[in-house]
């Protein structure tokens, strides 16, 4: 039940992001929450959450089913794998780098799938501009801030996971 609550929270964040998308550019908060969940719960639980959230987002956007799901899955599994070896616990710089590289994996996977199936004509040189790196950097900084607020919820005896 506790995992379902977190899934619903991520879905609500995505609904708000998609609803406000035409008016305001918002960061991928759903991805950041999935990455934080993967750090706390491990690679399998994080990958499963990433797959579920990605499928829900694919259904909401409606272009093609599976693009967000695969992208979220790979990013969440990568950061969950790094957390398995305690490489990012207690060190915000390592967590920042893990979120940074997971964001890059997400963006490149989504771009590759879109290019493969829809032939959008967007080259790698077009997406690897300063704007791309600025967005990734901003999302990583927001991820560090979210992590510090969400971490107490996941502790044993915390609000979300009482046992």
TrEMBL record:
Superkingdom, natural source: Bacteria
Family matches, as InterPro entries: Cell_shape_determining_MreD (IPR007227)
One GO term describing the cellular component: plasma membrane
Primary localization: membrane
Compartments, record wording: Cell membrane
Keywords, sorted A to Z: Cell membrane, Cell shape, Membrane, Transmembrane, Transmembrane helix
Record has tRNA processing as a keyword: no
Topology relative to the membrane: Multi-pass membrane protein
Bilayer-crossing regions: 6-24, 31-53, 59-80, 92-112, 132-150
One GO BP: regulation of cell shape
UniProt cross-references to NCBIfam families, sorted A to Z: shape_MreD
Protein family (similarity comment): Belongs to the MreD family.
Name of the protein described by the UniProt record: Uncharacterized protein
Organism this protein belongs to: Natranaerobius thermophilus (strain ATCC BAA-1301 / DSM 18059 / JW/NM-WN-LF)
């Amino acid at each position: 039940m506790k995992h379902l609550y977190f899934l619903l929270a991520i879905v609500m964040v995505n609904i708000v992001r998609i609803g406000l998308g035409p008016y305001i550019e918002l960061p991928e908060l759903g991805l950041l929450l999935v990455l934080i969940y993967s750090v706390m719960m491990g690679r399998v639980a994080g990958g499963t959450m990433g797959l579920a959230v990605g499928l829900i987002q694919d259904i909401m956007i409606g272009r093609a089913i599976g693009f967000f799901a695969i992208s979220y899955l790979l990013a969440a599994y990568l950061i969950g794998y790094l957390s398995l070896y305690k490489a990012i616990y207690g060190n915000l710089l390592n967590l920042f780098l893990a979120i940074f590289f997971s964001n890059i994996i997400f963006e490149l996977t989504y771009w590759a799938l879109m290019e493969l199936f829809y032939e959008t004509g967007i080259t790698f040189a077009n997406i690897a501009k300063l704007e791309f790196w600025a967005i990734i950097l901003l999302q990583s900084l927001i991820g560090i801030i979210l992590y510090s607020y969400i971490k107490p919820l996941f502790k044993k005896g915390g609000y979300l996971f009482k046992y």
